[in-house]
Design goal:
This protein is α+β, with helices and mostly antiparallel strands. It has three domains: about 10-160, DNA methylase specificity domains (Adenine-n6-DNA-methyltransferase TaqI, Chain A, domain 2); about 165-210 and about 360-410, Helix Hairpins (Orthogonal Bundle), CATH 1.10.287; about 215-355, Adenine-n6-DNA-methyltransferase TaqI, Chain A, domain 2. About 35% of the residues lie in helices and about 20% in strands. A hairpin with a 2-residue loop joins β19 (about 245-250) and β20 (about 250). The protein starts with 9 loop residues before the first strand and ends in a 9-residue tail after the last helix.
């Protein structure tokens, strides 16, 4: 583990905590939509890095089982993370008072921690499990690729700083105050980001939507197709293979995308899956409505979740088509076209009927110049706010580190 030469002695967590490592393994047949059934705590209840989500409950109608019940104030962690980032793996939550008076159970993806509170306070342990040292331990003891699983047998061997109960109470009190202030400040920044998003929508609504005659997308484009309908094997370096997640407000993310080899690229290029400069990409599967203008001359191919739109230059500029597809009215149309069950998508034949208001080419260029400038300013503000949010997270980690290095005791 990391540096443990702080002011407090360190002990093995297994010496001060008991564990119930696995909750209920269940099948879909024992789940119900009836909220009067038994609430079941699962991964959806645990936020990134910790924090309880009341909207994540499953409801269990199966038989009762010993040792898998929870009451308000109980401490649990996640055994599993469905992403490789490991932000949920080992993250702690305290069961809230909102479930008081009801039997609550937990799934096999959850471990219950039962601290000996004559030695270690529950909230002190919870804060420690949120600290950089503990998060590093959890990530180091996670295994898997698509799904990460915590090596729970390692938990009792995890080292924990153990000051006196008096110092533990003082640390909890200090962290309660400081982290509350920090969270309120972060929430204000998140609200500002939402305000900027609303301003962007309003800008597009008032300046792009409803100007000119209506045309269908098929009338405005000389080509409407999509990308590869099979997923080629990816390689470490090669030709860019762009998917929905690579479309950003700033354009196409070529730095963090996946790559395919030359043979796969040439096959997909022959199949028409390679966009050209001036084409517009529109996400139509899963997350519908992400838009990017192709400006790079670098050759790349796209997955079938992206539509490739080649605008008719006598009717619409690529830049105006991009803004139109981002406008609230056109996006609402597209979302209303989604179909399917497992993956909701907009099929090409339906996408072609999308209606867009189009002014003259001169008006389009004037609108694009103004709107792009305003969106750039809003984007710059959004980036500044995002940096402040990152600073809040860094400060939170620093506070937790200081707490367990003995810097929040009465003497300090």
């Amino acid at each position: 583990m990391t540096d443990q030469s702080g002011a407090f002695p360190w002990v093995l967590m297994g010496d001060v905590v008991d564990f119930v490592f696995r909750g209920i393994s269940y099948s879909k047949s024992v789940l119900t939509t009836d909220s009067d059934a038994t609430p079941m705590v699962n991964l959806a209840n645990i936020g990134k890095g910790g924090g309880f989500r009341d909207d994540g409950f499953k409801y269990y109608s199966g038989p009762s089982k010993k040792n898998v019940t929870l009451i308000p104030g109980d401490l649990v962690i996640a055994n599993t993370d469905l992403s490789s980032a490991k932000d949920v793996l080992g993250a702690p939550v305290v069961i809230p008072s909102s479930v008081a008076g009801r039997e609550v159970v937990f799934t096999h993806h959850i471990t219950k921690l039962i601290p000996d509170e004559t030695k270690i306070l529950k909230l002190y342990l919870k804060y420690f499990l949120e600290s950089p040292i503990a998060r590093q331990f959890m990530k180091a003891h996670g295994s898997g690729t698509t799904v990460m699983n915590l090596q729970t047998r390692a938990l009792p061997k995890m080292e924990v700083p153990l000051p006196s109960l008096e110092d533990q109470r003082r640390i909890v009190e200090q962290l309660d105050v400081q982290l509350y202030k920090l969270e309120k400040s972060r929430e204000s920044l998140v609200k500002l980001k939402l305000l900027l998003k609303s301003l962007s929508r309003s800008l597009l609504h008032h300046n792009v939507s409803g100007h000119g005659d209506l045309y269908s997308l098929s009338e405005l484009c000389t080509l409407i197709t999509d990308g590869s309908h099979f997923s080629p094997k990816t390689v470490e370096r090669g030709f860019p293979y762009i998917t929905v997640r690579d479309l950003q407000d700033s354009g196409i993310d070529f730095e963090n995308c996946k790559y395919i080899n030359e043979d796969s690229f040439l096959e997909l290029e022959r199949s028409g899956c390679s966009p050209k400069p001036g084409d517009v990409l529109f996400s139509k599967d899963g997350t519908v409505g992400k838009v990017a203008l192709v400006s790079s001359t670098e050759p790349f191919v796209v997955l079938s979740s992206l539509a490739i739109l080649r605008p008719n230059s006598s009717l619409i500029t690529p830049e105006f088509l991009k803004l139109s597809l981002r406008s609230p009215e056109v996006l609402e149309q597209a979302l209303g076209m989604k179909s399917g069950t497992a993956i909701r998508r907009v099929v090409l034949r339906t996408l072609k009927t999308l209606e867009i208001a189009v002014p003259s080419l001169d008006e389009q260029r004037s609108i694009v110049k103004f709107v792009d400038g305003e969106l750039s300013r809003l984007g710059s503000l959004d980036n500044q706010i995002e940096e402040l949010i990152d600073q809040h997270e860094n400060l939170r980690r620093s506070l937790l580190h200081a707490a367990f290095a003995g810097q929040l005791t009465k003497e300090n």
